[in-house]
Each structure stands twice: as structure tokens, then as C-alpha cells.
Amino acid sequence: MSAPLLEVRGLSNHFGSVCTARDLSLSFAEGELTSVIGPNGAGKSTFINLLTGHLPVQAGQVLFRGRDVTGLAVHQRVRLGMGRSFQIANVFPGLTVLENVLIPALALAGRAGRPLSRISGEREAREQAQGVLSRVGLGAEAERPASALSHGDRRLLEVAVALASRPALLFLDEPTAGMNPVERTRLLEGIRALSAGGQTTFVLVEHDMDVVFALSARVVVLHRGELLCDGPPERVRADARVREVYLGHEVEEAAP
Question: All domains of the chain, ordered by start, with CATH?
Fold first, then answer.
């Protein structure tokens, strides 16, 4: 059996008297598309923040490709191959779509200090950025200002920005939030295709049970900072504890 891409050992976190992560231990395999779910306040976003370095780990250990990254800063983890997106679209509206993707592409190449006005000479980086945009379905939008994109396309652009750093592991925090059904379907098809491509392993934090059960090979359920259930969608849907946490509605009604 190959070593996990990411391993979490005894991860714990508190905000005052509120426990947001309690002795969490689990691992993520390369190539396995995983969703992390749970009711509001379950600790999902905190869990992702701890793994990616946006919050300091108070107890426990995070290993990426066998290396202890528990104390590393966000940019150090990104360089190793860990990336994430956020619940709120985090792009530069005053830049073009291509320029947004060029920023992490240039940073990865160690040329982020050059002003964007000179990117015309960065042929290799431009080609890489254009390729990333094509992978998420935004190739034709490269020269448009990001501010002109629809909400759904801004979310796609954020995924492209995250992919431009060439992550081996990418966390997407509620990627379909605020999307209409057409936008959501487009994004999900894009994520499915990117996952099947094998270059990046995806972990989604998601509230929409239709998304979770249609897309995921594995579902991790958190509740009050603890691991409640972990396994394939069919097992999670049938778990009595999961049904109780969700009051039986979302989990029972969601269709694969």
C-alpha cells in the first residue's frame, strides 16, 4: 500500500472554550476525490485552515508526502504542493482573467517580483496560465477583466488561480456557494474532469448534499470538531449518526 498524500495525527484546536477540532486522525490518498461535510459549526473550514497553515496547530501533526509540515507557513506549504480556495471568491477584479492566473504562475517560477506591465515577455508563464484557463473552461475569457465575469465564472477563475501553483493536493471550500444550477453543473463537471486527469487530488468542503454524493469517492463527516463518519458515499448516507446530525433530511433526500 502506498503512503498517503496527506496524513493528520491527533489534530486539535480550541477557540477559548469552543473546541473546533478534537483529536482528528485521518489520511487522504492521492487521486481520491473527497468531500468534507457537517452541519454549521462542525469545524470544516477550521479543519482546512489548520491543514493549509492558515491557522496554527495547537496539538497534533500534519504530514504531507511523509514530511512534517505542521509548523510551516502557508507559502511554504504551497511550494510543496498544497493549495486551497476560499468560500468568498478571492480574485483581483481589476486585472484580466489571464493576469489573475499569471500571478501564482510567476510566483511558482520565482519571478513574482516583476510588475504585471512586463508580462508580455513571460511567454512560458503565459502559456502555462492559458493552459490552466483552458482546463477549467475559461480559455476564451483570458483577456476579459475579472470584474466582468459572472459569479460562477469567478469561482472557476479562483480554481484556476489555485491550480496555477500546480498543487498535488487542492482544498476547495464550498466551491458551489451562490451558484445557479447551470453554473454548479459546469463547475462540478470541471472538477470531475480535473480529478480524473490525475494531476491534482481534490478535497471539497461542501454543504450541498447533491454535490457531495454525485461527485465524491469518499465522504468525511465532522460534527463539533470530531470525526463522525468516514467512508464511501453509500456508507455515509446509511449511517444512523449522520442521519441524526442532519435531522434525516438532506442525507436521505440527496440522490447519487
Answer: 1-81+167-256 (3.40.50.300), 91-166 (no CATH)
